[in-house]
Amino acid sequence: MSSTSDRTVVLITGANQGIGYEVAKGLLAHENYHILLGSRDAARGAKAAEELDPTGKIVEPITIDVTDDASIQQAVEQVESKHGRLDVLVNNAGINNEVEMYSRQIQNEKEGIQEKPDLAQLRQLYRDAYEVNVSGAAITTEAFAPLLEKSAATPARIVFVSSHTGSLGLRIDKLSNWYPRLSNPSFPIYRSSKAALNMLTLHYAAKFQAKGWKVNGSCPNLTATNFSRGKGRPASESAVNIVRLATMGVDGESGEYTDENGVVPW
Ligand SMILES: NC(=O)c1ccc[n+]([C@@H]2O[C@H](COP(=O)([O-])OP(=O)(O)OC[C@H]3O[C@@H](n4cnc5c(N)ncnc54)[C@H](OP(=O)(O)O)[C@@H]3O)[C@@H](O)[C@H]2O)c1
C-alpha cells in the first residue's frame, strides 16, 4: 500500500452523514486517495470514519465546525502537521433551517390565519444559515488555501456543494422542468444562501485560475438525507458528480456549475 504522502489528500466538510459521507465512500473506490472525513462532532466523525475504513489508514476523521474559526484553524493545523498539504477541498457542510417556519406558514395560510412575522427569529435563521452555507464555505476555503498551494496534485481542486434551488437561471426559465418548483416562493433563506455560494464559486474559480486549480459547484438534486427529511434519491447518486469534480485532472472544467447530466445555469 502507498503511504499517505503518495495519496491525494481530500477534505470533505460535513461528511459524517448524508451526501458528504457518500462522497467519502465514492472516493474510497478511487485508488490513492486519503480521505479527511470532516465532522463538527468528533464522536460522529470517528464512528463514520470507522464504518468506512476499519483499518483507519485511508479514512481519517477530522473535527471541523465551519462556523467556528478556532475549529477551522485547528483542522488546518492537524492537516498541516500530518500531511503538510491539502490536494482537494469539498465544501459540503450545509443546512436548511427554515423547514419548520415554512410548514407553519403554509398551515396558517390554509387556516386563514394571518401570522405576524417574528423578525428576530427570521434574522437569527438568516444568520445561522448564512454562517454555515456561505461564510462557512468561504472561510474554510480561505483557511485551507495555503495548504492547497502546497498541493502535490495536478490540479488542486475545490468543490462547492450547492443546489439547483440556488440557480437564478432555472428560477426564471419558464421552460425548465425546475420552474414549477422554483417559482414557488419557498425557502428564501436556503435558496439565497446557495445563490450566494454560487457567486463564491465563480469568485474562487477566478481567484485561483492562474494557479490552474479547478473550482466548481455541484447540484445534488433532492436527496434522501436528514436534511430533506428522507425525501429524494439515494445520496450515493448525488455524490457521483461531486466525486467527479473532486477527482478530475487538468482537462476538467473550472468555474462551472453542474449535476451529473451536465451544466446547470447559474
Ligand atoms: N439533501 C438534499 O436534498 C440536498 C439537495 C441539494 C443540495 N444539498 C446540499 O448538500 C449538502 C449536504 O447535505 P445533506 O443532504 O447530506 O445533509 P445532511 O445529511 O444533513 O448532512 C449535512 C452535514 O453538514 C454538517 N454540518 C452542519 N452544520 C455544520 C457546521 N456548522 N460545520 C460543519 N459541518 C456542519 C452536518 O453535521 P451534523 O451531522 O453534525 O449535523 C452533516 O454532516 C449541503 O450543502 C446541502 O445544502 C442537499
From TrEMBL:
Q: Transmembrane segments in this chain: where? A: none
Q: Which organism is it from?
A: Penicillium cinerascens
High-level lineage = Eukaryota, Fungi, Dikarya, Ascomycota, Pezizomycotina
Record has NADP as a keyword: yes
* Similarity remark: Belongs to the short-chain dehydrogenases/reductases (SDR) family.
Which molecular-function annotations from GO does this UniProt entry contain? oxidoreductase activity
| InterPro entries listed in its UniProt record | NAD(P)-bd_dom_sf, SDR_fam
SUPFAM superfamilies tied to this protein? NAD(P)-binding Rossmann-fold domains
- For this UniProt entry, what's an example GO CC term? membrane
Q: What keywords are assigned to this protein?
A: NADP, Oxidoreductase
Against Pfam families, the record matches this protein to: adh_short
Recorded protein name is: Uncharacterized protein
PANTHER family cross-referenced by the UniProt entry: (+)-NEOMENTHOL DEHYDROGENASE, SHORT-CHAIN DEHYDROGENASE_REDUCTASE
